[in-house]
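writing this on my phone so excuse typos. first protein, seq and then structure
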Amino acid sequence: MDKGLIPRRYAKALFEVAAERRDDAAVYSLMQSLAASFAAEPALATTVANPFVKVDDKIALLTQAAGGKLGAADATYQDFLKLLGTNRRLDMAWDIARAYIDLYRSANNIYRVMVESAAPLSDKDRKRLEAIIAAHVGKGSMEYDYRINPALIGGFTVTVNSERLDASVANQLKQLRLQLIG
């Protein structure tokens, strides 16, 4: 069976319940925090997968990792964690979180935008770039992630979901080299 199929099914079920309870946006925020915690701390996945760690301890750990604040969405999240614990699927929490994030973004027309630049962009350049991206994408909203990558030498790259624009000096030099060789 496809390992991604099970997390997607759980994510879809969570999304439907959260939407029914009108907690989908808050659960989305919790899932973003959870995914970020897994990415920042690799030992979290190992601990959650450890069969010697009690289910209640795993649930407490996953609650802490999501940054829960005991609101209405946390009740939905806690119910979900209990279901995962009962079904012995807590080790899939990271995959489920990523699948939920994808579902939520798709349902709400949210685009993930990654901007890498050789040096920090000024506020003016950021606003100009964001306006160009918004015009390109059209309807929907964007979540921006700005990163510095000195290997670009100059310029920037923009990735919107899976579409990429590379306006870096490193790419231009690579293209020039390919033209000279070919």
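second protein below, same order as before
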Amino acid sequence: MAKLVLVKHSNSNHNPTQPAQDWELTPEGYQRCKPLAKRLAAYRPRRLFSSSMPKALQTARSVAADLENIPVIENPLLAEHSRRTNAPYGSLASFDARIKRLFEAPDELVFGDETATQARQRFQRGILSLIEIARPAENIVVIAHGTVAVLFAAHYNAIDSYDLWRKLKMPSFIEMESSDFRICQVVEDAGSG
């Protein structure tokens, strides 16, 4: 049965003076893409789909290079929750508190320019469009972001969203059945080993 693999990008530079959507991978982030590529090779992807945000796109391109230069296809619907330009990252504690609230109140505009529900619906449209173009039995590997990946997974599975979000390292991934989006496994740290 075909799988949908939602990958959280690798380590990015947490620069509080710059919007999070502009953050790029750190040297460690690039190094952690190598073990990620080895893990994703098991799914035999023909191509990678990626958010257009630099940290995801750089992760996808690095992984694709290690997977015999398979194509990377950008899809803006796969972007992280909001552009977050009106909510600077701030301290780790304040960011964490906003994310917790986002999961607790999905229809409330907590920060950014979309609610959690709106972000999940946008991401879901992106995922469904990929499934439509996939060949039968093709595994779909998406390099995206932790918040939207968890919002999507939680919509179809009885999980504690905030708890899962906190466990996902950079990079990590959630493997799901592409037919019903049931979670098969969660790899909390795919950048080690």
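The longest helix spans residues 116-133. thats all i got for now
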